[in-house]
Amino acid sequence: MLKAGSSAPPVELTELSGSRWVLKEALSSGPVLLAFFKISCPTCRLTLPYLQRLVEKGQPGSPALLTISQDDPRVTQEFLNRFGIQVPVAVDKAWDFVASNAFGIPYVPSMFLIEPDGTISMAAQGFVKTDLEELGIRFGAAPFQAGEAVPEIRPG
After folding, report:
1. Cα-to-chain-centroid distance, residue 94
2. Residues near 108 by beta carbon (within 8 Å), at least 6 away in sequence
3. Per the confidence metrics, is the pTM higher than 0.85?
4. Number of structural domains the chain divides into
5. Which of 28, 49, 69, 108 has its CA 20 to 30 A from that of 76?
6. pLDDT tens-place values along the chain, 156 residues long
């Protein structure tokens, strides 16, 4: 898996909406958080609502978020609808996992915060509460609500 300080590989994906998404173009507007997931992964299902909170409550200038599903587009859309997840989603190319392989992902969830110069400033695997708190600082939003029971760590 690529580590913080590495250069992000060029990535070009198709969003569920059908729009083309290119990392280099997205970075021209500011930092980007890429979050890779698979709907059969319980840890991914735990993580996605917290990422949605960061986007919903994030301050102007917050990183953009793109979640990347390793599942079929139809199945991914059904999952998002069922659980009310409303974040930007792209699908890693039809089972060959071009983007996942480019980032060297051993398992999901895996997240990469990429700065406008293309440098990865954060690389995280699994669910780690402190990683999400760190992202909350960058987004200017708390991922967790006061008094909410949140596990410290949950492997992917």
Report:
1. 18
2. 36, 37, 38, 41, 43, 44, 70, 156
3. yes
4. 1
5. 28
6. 999 999 999 999 999 999 999 999 999 999 999 999 999 999 999 999 999 999 999 999 999 999 999 999 999 999 999 999 999 999 997 668 999 999 999 999 999 999 999 999 999 999 999 999 999 999 999 999 999 999 999 998
d(CA 25, CA 39): 27
Instruction: Quickly list H helices, the chain.
Output: 23-27, 42-57, 73-83, 98-102, 129-139
Q: Up-side HSE of residue 15: CA atoms within 13 Å toward CB?
A: 15
Question: What's the CATH number where 33 sits?
Answer: 3.40.30.10
- Domain, as residue range, for 95: 12-142
Q: Are 62 and 141 in contact (CB under 8 A)?
A: yes
Tokens coding 144:
């967790």
- Determine contact, residues 76/39, Cβ cutoff 8 Å: yes
Does residue 6 sit within a domain? no
DSSP state of 46: H
